[in-house]
Amino acid sequence: MRYVSTNGRARPVAFREAALRGTAEDGGLFLPERIPTLAPEVWEQDGDVSFAETAFAVARAFFANDFADDELRAIVADACSFDVPLVTLEPSLHVHELFHGPTLAFKDVGARFMARVFAHLRRDTDAPLTVLVATSGDTGGAVAAGFHNVAGVRVVLLYPAGRVSQMQERQMTTLGGNITAVALNGSFDDCQWLVKRALGDAGLRDRLALTSANSINIARLIPQVFYYVHAFAQLSIHISSHARGRALPVVCAVPSGNFGNLTAGLIARRMGLPIAHFIAATNANAVVPEYLASGTFQLRDSLRTLSSAMDVGDPSNFARMLALYEHDVERMRRDITGYSASDGETLAAMRRIYARHGYVADPHTAVAYAGLERYHERHLAARVTPCQGIVLATAHPAKFPETVRAALGIEPERPARPRACLDHPTRSVPLDNDFAALCRLLDENDH
Question: String of b and e for 384-419 (b: at least 16 CB within 10 Å)?
């Protein structure tokens, strides 16, 4: 398997180079040269199957020529050591809980897989590697946990100061060791721009052996395909006992900020997964829903919202979406519908899902639930066949207790594992929104 650039002006490369470079020579993002297909038996299960088993089948389709089976199986088993259950709220409505990893966010899957892949790829070298990351909240904690104390790797996390939740900040700033948290005086888009500029600076990249652990890195993106396939493995068991659900098309509602999660779903669909449609659910940062409505893509400064991990005005993975659809908006519209939700609509959606099902959703999951509701309403009015709806739950509500209290008047249960970070001192480096200042920090940190 080789990987090609979304910009189309760089040579195809093997996985090792794509992962360790982060971005292509021409500034584009890597995509597989071809997308492999999966046999339906991978997701059409008659009995329980573990997440690690499903993940290995998907990983092998991409990486069989890059890792021996026993090596890949060990990487996947260690990375995917927690469950991602499909919770059924009613026969045709399901929530896929992706937040049962160490930092209570879906990004644990990609970050843990990537950390173990990097350790494997670099097992024969002592040369240091610098992983530079932009985060709007959840990526930082997941990458910090995944890479903490990985030999030969130092991680620098850029996050927008004052724009992440308390738990998100503490997950990034309390580990220390090889993890440096940087509080940037700016937005997530500013963090992301600095990371992309650093990766595009050949001298800096080569001097520091610089790469990224954002979803711009193909090693972070591909493992996000794992849980789409596992959702269907669980769904096939569920609908086997509900004959009327068997024929219903499946629609996935995806909370979307940088659009890595949705891009992974599009790849899963091209691998053969029978997803009828996707809902690109955003908060007020609605540049992709606006593109789907108008055919014009217009970047904007990101807006602060209650669903802060989706506060992205310049989504990187949109370049991959365009490449997958050959820049044809009509083709994209056949597979994806975009909806956005205001903060008020997000709080209202949290109240509705709790009132109807007793389910406590974080604000990002609520945005996706609201998008699925609107999709249902539109299709009910048009008398279109109903669907099996899967809402991707990307973060545990305990990461956003203030929002849960505002919406529901209750305190979300806090799992024991991440609670400890709240008792540790925080360590972060303040930084102005300036590329030269970032370069100085990286060089100082390299010693």
Answer: eeebbbbbbbbbbbbbbbebbeebbeeebebeeebe
> Do 21 and 120 meet the contact criterion of CB atoms below 8 Å apart?
no
Does 363 fall in a domain?
A: yes
| Nearest by Cα to 339 from 391, 302, 301 | 391
Identify the CATH number of the domain in which residue 379 sits.
Answer: 3.40.50.1100
Residue 286 falls within a domain, yes or no?
yes
Is 370 among the domain residues?
Answer: yes
Cα angle 376, 239, 79 (rounded to 5 degrees) comes to: 95
- Contact predicate 302/188, CB 8 Å: yes
Helix (H, G, I), strand (E, B) or coil at 129: strand
How far, rounded to the nearest angstrom, does the alpha carbon of residue 380 sit from its chain's CA centroid?
Answer: 30
Q: Which tens digits make up the pLDDT trace of 35-68?
A: 999 998 888 876 678 999 999 999 999 999 999 9
**pLDDT at residue 102 tops 50:** yes
Phi, psi of 160 (to 5 degrees): -75, 115
With 50 as the cut, is the pLDDT of residue 244 above it? no
Nearest to residue 278, comparing CAs of 263, 298, 296, 300?
A: 263
Residue 438 contacts residue 198 (beta carbons within 8 Å): yes
Model confidence pLDDT, tens digit, residues 155-198: 999 999 988 888 888 888 988 899 999 999 999 899 989 999 99
185 within some domain: no
- The domain of 245 spans 83-104+221-416
What type of residue is 442? L
Q: For the chain, what is the domain count?
A: 1
Exposure class string for 185-213: b at 16+ Cβ within 10 A, else e: ebbbbbbbbbbbebbeeeebbeebbbbbb
Q: How confident is the model at residue 243 (pLDDT cuts 50, 70, 90)?
A: very low
- Asked if 158 contacts 195 with a C-beta cutoff of 8 angstroms, the reply is yes
Q: What is the DSSP letter of 40?
A: G
